[in-house]
Amino acid sequence: MKKIAKLIMATMMIATSCTLSAEVLPAPQTAGGMPLMQAMQERKSMRDIDPASTVTKQDLSNMLWAAWGITHEGKRTIATAMNRQELILYVITPTEISRYSAEDNTLTVVNTGDFRDIQARQDWAKTAPINIALVVNTDKQKKDEFQNYTAGAASHAIYLYCASVGLKTTVRAMLDNDEVERAMKLGDDERLLYIQTVGR
Ligand SMILES: Cc1cc2nc3c(=O)[nH]c(=O)nc-3n(C[C@H](O)[C@H](O)[C@H](O)COP(=O)(O)O)c2cc1C
After folding, report:
1. Whose CA is nearest to atom 4 of ligand 1?
2. Stretch 184-193: mean pLDDT, rounded?
3. What percent of the chain has pLDDT over 70?
4. Cβ contacts of residue 62 below 8 Å, gap of 6+?
5. Does residue 171 line the site of ligand 1, with CB under 6 A?
6. What is the whole-number distance in angstroms between the Cα of residue 170 and the centre of ligand 1?
7. What pTM does this model have?
8. Is the alpha carbon torsion for 113, 126, 151, 36 positive or negative?
9. pLDDT tens-digit series, residues 139-161
């Protein structure tokens, strides 16, 4: 009897965690917006982010798509060497860390809790509402220089999107990588390169 109760409990816990973990984002808005040349003119690193500021789910969806959306023949908004598509984006919020899937436009929770303190060495980045971790799959792309190109291109797309809608952002390489990678539960074939902080 005890065994059956345990089994029911375990099944319920798994079912609950499954329903809680995947969030469908609003469809990305892929037309219109600020003219490209103007967004380039506006792009800059900004660190004076109000800890009380928020980023809407629509803006989050748009910026993740700008960085890593699927656009043509299964390919992406940014180029990747030999089309290896090695990038993985994680979103760090005050309550959880989630993994982005461009295929179904979802965020899947990989860890719950506030990890903003450990994902930044700089105070201004510890209180911002959104941090996007740029991770690469080192099995898909083994060359460091190509991995860095990919993460850099995605980072720049986030910069341009933020500039176009008046969000503040700065990419950061000064990180305690091991600690953050543990919090993100990265696999052996995943490597954290940068984290990009976003807010208002
Ligand atoms: C690869 C890379 C790593 C960076 N790392 C950090 C960082 O750890 N902390 C930070 O505050 N800014 C960081 N920055 C932002 C630069 O300081 C910033 O881009 C530079 O000062 C030029 O300013 P701008 O982006 O406004 O043109 C980084 C930028 C790049 C491209």
Report:
1. 172
2. 98
3. 90
4. 28, 29, 161, 165
5. yes
6. 6
7. 0.91
8. positive
9. 999 999 999 999 999 999 999 99
